[in-house]
Amino acid sequence: MPLREYIGQVINLEVVRKADFGFFLSDGEEDVLLHQNDTEGEVIEGEHVDVFLYTDSQGRITATNIIPSITVGTYDWAKVSDVNRDLGVFIDIGVKKDMLLGREDLPVHRSVWPEEGDLLYITLRVNRNDRIYVKLATDPIIQEKMITATKKDFNKNIQGHIYRTAKVGSWIYTAEGFKGFIHESQRSVEPRLGQKVEGRIIDVKEDGTINVSLVPRKQEALDEDAEHIYSYLMSRNGAMPYTDKSMPEDIEERFNMSKGAFKRALGRLMKAEKIYQENGWTYSKENK
Fold first, then answer.
1. pLDDT exceeds 80 at position 217
2. How far apart are CA 158 and CA 248, in angstroms?
3. Which SUPFAM superfamilies does UniProt cross-reference here (predicted)?
4. What is the mean pLDDT of the chain?
């Protein structure tokens, strides 16, 4: 295959000759430059070396033997090195050239764009002009790589980075590897894409993903059971098929609490005028 097919990937090439400004490498048909500024360690003519191929500012294929953990199809965390409001954000993947995450792949509202130092979970993509761009990890990728949370993880403090953001909420990939959702009611401000946040697990869902709150524990004087129930309610757009008449086993399975504790927590939420019950369902007054 032509070398252009390996842009954004690692390939093993032979060091065919030395030049004043670096080394020329070859696959037997094409040559590519390994510039001395892109070289790490000793490079010996006649030997083979693993290199990462990318395009320089003039669109020419170039090589580096500094191998990044992020290549086309492989994902890892990388730090935002610069923000350009006209182009997007630049990401340091460990090679000489920073890679661009274009503005078309960033949130519409610039207030939640990443800032310098934020971390993004990314891979690389190559366009038709052989230019390398950053690609954000999607929900299916995070789902594939996530660690499954269990009921024992409920109420634990966690920290992680935002990998997707929207008006309805933010999605977090935690340090433990949990995939989580932060409903808009569980954050005081919308966090940036790539921002590190700290919160707590307020629900563990059947698929092992979690709901997270960034709200301080003592806000609105609700106890943990009430917060747990209210967070679950809001994750369902303010409606759930559980009331103080629900069966104890259903409450235990869903909320991991006794019916007595459940009823007390519902009472606190009603007293705080946050919920009401109707026809076997509980609703949030916020969505009424």
1. no
2. 30
3. Nucleic acid-binding proteins
4. 92
